[in-house]
């Protein structure tokens, strides 16, 4: 293969070799369905491979994870629709199971505060925290990627959790 299509195909193959397991873990965590994670991850790589102008993508790995996240979300929505179809029409006698507006607002505020806490972490500590909690990498892999020891990874994770707890305990201005 030569030309742009061949180059893009090589990039996809490299992404597959280096990111497949992580993409599967992210999808399995997001969907709660590890049996489908492999198929859904493969769909993410196929969607990326079918991009008409793949060579123009600046961050193929980042796009891969965005596509995988969207596929996982679509899978969750389809599974929910299927469960609702199988459950039949709702019973008017049952209480609503949807969260209240107050609960949704409180959850959104908590998530915003948590994002703020993570954003306030020192850069290396934030990187360690995200690699461990978002990408699911083990200490050794994080250490290799960042050029630090697994013990230093543990130190950064402990510091991140402590700083996030402190940030979350602060009272909100009223």
From TrEMBL:
TM segment ranges: none
Family: Belongs to the sigma-70 factor family. ECF subfamily.
Domain annotation HTH luxR-type: ranges: 118-172
GO biological process, one term: DNA-templated transcription initiation
Superkingdom of origin: Bacteria
InterPro entries: RNA_pol_sigma-70-like, RNA_pol_sigma-70_dom, RNA_pol_sigma70_r2, RNA_pol_sigma70_r4_t2, RNA_pol_sigma_r2, RNA_pol_sigma_r3/r4-like, Tscrpt_reg_LuxR_C, WH-like_DNA-bd_sf
Protein name: HTH luxR-type domain-containing protein
Naturally occurring in which organism (per UniProt): Azospirillum thiophilum
Keyword terms: Sigma factor, Transcription, Transcription regulation
SMART domains, per the entry: HTH_LUXR
An example Gene Ontology molecular-function term: DNA binding
